[in-house]
Amino acid sequence: MFCTKCGQHNPPDALYCARCGSPLVRPGEPVAPERPGDQTSSLNLATAALHRVDGDHSDEANERDAVAAVDALPPGSALLVVKRGPNAGSRFLLDADLTTAGRHPESDIFLDDVTVSRRHAEFLRSPYTKGFTVRDVGSLNGTYLNRERIDSADLTSGDEVQIGKFRLVFLTGSPYSGGGPL
């Protein structure tokens, strides 16, 4: 069970995150009371994005966990899911205006591999739109968005960001309701 706040992997029977203390959301557990007829658009988007990048439909439990994590996102935040690389399956919450990624131990997203620069990339949240941008900060191997090298680019849900050998899927719910219906 992964924490939707900090990405920490917790025991399956845990009620709270061991790292940050946030309540854990179980897969399939509603985050907010559901009304009949409401449909959550991020369910299909998250599943489609995970299938598009990975192409593996066999790991349904991990997909359900990722979808549940997207549904539980706080408003104005996003999630990075590692699809390929040494930390496959890890999740990183983007809930700050600036999130750093790299091999430096003080990076917000620590990616420990020689293909990653110590200070590799930054994820910036716009204070106005709550949208996210990824920016390469002078890395040796570059930062890629959907397999194209970029200096800076806006992100949309389902985009694949490559940092070194790590491939991360950017997922976001509704900017208004934390992934619920608009």
Structure commentary:
This protein is about 15% helix and about 25% strand. It is an alpha+beta fold and about 180 residues long. Strands 2-1-11-10-7-8 form a 6-stranded antiparallel β-sheet, with helices on one face. It has a 5-stranded mixed β-sheet with strand order 4-3-5-6-9, with no helix packed on it. It is globular. The model is unreliable at about 35-50, about 50-60 and about 175-180 (pLDDT under 50).
Give a short summary of the structure.
Helix content is 14%, strand content 26%. With 182 residues, the chain is α+β, with helices and mostly antiparallel strands. The chain has a domain of 96 residues: Tumour Suppressor Smad4, CATH 2.60.200.
Mass-distribution shape: globular
Q: What's the CATH architecture name of the domain at 77-172?
A: Sandwich
Q: Strands of the largest sheet, in order across it?
A: 2-1-11-10-7-8
Biggest sheet layout:
6 strands, antiparallel
Secondary-structure-derived class: alpha+beta
Task: Tell me the radius of gyration.
Answer: 16 Å
Q: Give the mean pLDDT.
A: 79
Helix content: 10-25%
Distance between the termini: 27 Å
* Poorly predicted runs: 33-49, 51-58, 176-182
